[in-house]
Specification:
Elements lengths: L2 H8 L7 E6 L1 H5 L5 H11 L1 E2 L2 E2 L6 E6 L2 E6 L6 H14 L6 E5 L6 E6 L2 H9 L1
Parallel strand pairs: 1-7
Antiparallel strand pairs: 1-5, 2-3, 4-5, 6-7
Helix pairs in contact: 3-4
């Protein structure tokens, strides 16, 4: 009997929740985007059980200054889906050309919105 099966048999196993964060500090400081509209967009678009907007108790979206935290009780919620929805929001508000969604180096469950490095590209084209 494996360890996981033994823990489940005892009744001690509980569902593990996932927590993801989107750090929007740079674009919010520059007043390029409104974080409240991103929060509303995520609440309307995240699908739970095949239905968009019906988050229920399984998924929560919370805004804290310039960060949005998405917590899911369901282990099926993927980080990639959150990135997809964030990119869709950026495209809808016509800022996708200047911002990109990048996973932070420090923590695996954090996405950052950063600017494209345009200055480096201009320097390469002049040569």
């Amino acid at each position: 009997m494996s360890k996981g099966a033994a823990a489940a048999a005892k009744g001690g196993a509980k569902k593990k929740g996932m927590t993801f964060t989107i750090d929007c500090s740079k674009p919010v400081e520059d007043k390029i985007m409104d974080i409240a509209s991103l929060e509303k967009f995520l609440q309307e678009r995240i699908k739970v059980g095949g239905k968009a907007g019906a988050l229920g108790a399984s998924v929560t979206v919370v805004r804290e200054k310039s960060k949005i935290t998405v917590t899911s009780d369901d282990s099926n919620f993927s980080k990639r889906y959150l990135k997809y929805l964030t990119k869709k929001y950026l495209k809808k508000h016509n800022v996708r050309d200047w911002l990109r969604v990048i996973a932070a180096n420090k923590d695996r469950n954090v996405y950052e919105l950063r600017y494209f490095n345009i200055a480096e590209n201009e320097g390469e084209e002049e040569d």
